[in-house]
Amino acid sequence: MNIRVADIQACYELWKGRGAEFITEPSEKYGERLCDMRDPDGYRSRTEQTGLPVRLALRWQARPADIKETSIEVLSSMSIQTSFQADIRPLFTERDIDAMTKAFNLANYDDVKAHAAAIYDRIRGIGGAVMPPPPPRGGGPWPQSRIELFAKWMADGCRP
């Protein structure tokens, strides 16, 4: 099971404080922030940071052996805005940047802002092949969380 949240560090601290059993701490992997934990039945689940406002209903009881899902809300802040430098630029690999140099510079805020709608279409496979292309030509399509982060950046006004 994957759980997607807007602020992984806050969720990690809250759930750990309530007895959740984490396998890993939040860290950068594959260009995303994520961590793994065990659910009440012992199955591994992954929590990923999306950068989007998310409403999640989980509460952990006092003892880790009795972890159960109930309905207390963890609300992520809707006021957190994305920026090119902090959120979008890290999504593009050097391979992506090199592959697009003839069209525009994915490392440059002004270029990405000017082409944001076209980039958004292509990362969703609209108007041509999905970008980035699958191996061996590229690193493969973005996970949905990255696509949603890019969409949120656009909705936030393409902040630098």
Structural summary, described in words:
It is built from six helices and seven strands, in the order βαββββββααααα. It has helices spanning 8-17, 84-88, 94-99, 109-114, 116-123, 144-155; strands spanning 2-5, 21-22, 27-29, 32-38, 44-49, 55-57, 73-75. Strands 1, 2, 3, 4 and 5 form a five-stranded mixed sheet that branches. Strands 6-7 form a two-stranded antiparallel sheet. Helix 5 runs antiparallel to helix 6. The chain is elongated, with a radius of gyration of 18 Å.
Features:
160 residues; alpha+beta; 2 domains; 5-stranded mixed sheet; two-stranded antiparallel ribbon; 7 strands; 29% helix
Q: Structural class from helices and strands?
A: alpha+beta
Helix run count? 6
Number of domains: 2
Shape category: elongated
Number of strands: 7
What's the N-to-C terminus distance?
34 Å
Largest β sheet strand count, sense and barrel closure: 5 strands, mixed
**Low-confidence sequence ranges:** 52-79
The helix/strand order is EHEEEEEEHHHHH
Instruction: Classify the helix fraction into a percent range.
Output: 25-40%
What proportion strand? Answer: 15-25%
Average pLDDT reading: 78
Computed over alpha carbons, the radius of gyration is 18 Å
